[in-house]
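wait is this the right file?? whatever heres the structure
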């Protein structure tokens, strides 16, 4: 990490961290969170035997788009204070290949694929 600064948080209240996500405290070199999900909303009664498979949907077999090359921008920074201080944080939540981080990170490559299906009662 270039020109590191120290992140200081007195308190952090986080309600939930779910589905391939994380709460990270400290510096991280590389983070690659991944998540894939099929969300089915069905109007009316349903049974637990109603299974769906990732192989049914092409979105889960496709290769992700290649990363763009990093931009090179000439810049310089002068930090009067080398600490970033926060008294308190309240975070409702992080979900689906995401991260809440108190600290620094060099590289992050997050992938989330969600197939959302809504089945109305007149379609059944």
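ok assuming it is, sequence goes like this
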């Amino acid at each position: 990490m270039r020109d590191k600064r120290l992140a200081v948080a007195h308190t952090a209240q986080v309600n939930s961290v779910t589905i391939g996500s994380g709460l990270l405290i400290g510096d991280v070199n590389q983070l690659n969170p991944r998540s894939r999900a099929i969300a089915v909303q069905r109007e009316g009664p349903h049974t637990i035997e109603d299974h769906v498979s990732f192989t049914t949907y092409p979105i889960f077999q496709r290769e992700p788009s290649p990363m763009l090359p990093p931009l090179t921008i000439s810049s310089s920074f002068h930090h009067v204070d080398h600490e970033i201080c926060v008294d308190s944080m309240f975070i409702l939540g992080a979900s689906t290949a995401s991260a809440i981080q108190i600290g620094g990170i060099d590289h992050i490559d997050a992938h989330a694929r969600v197939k959302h299906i809504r089945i109305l009662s007149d379609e059944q």
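The mean pLDDT is 89. so i think its the right one actually
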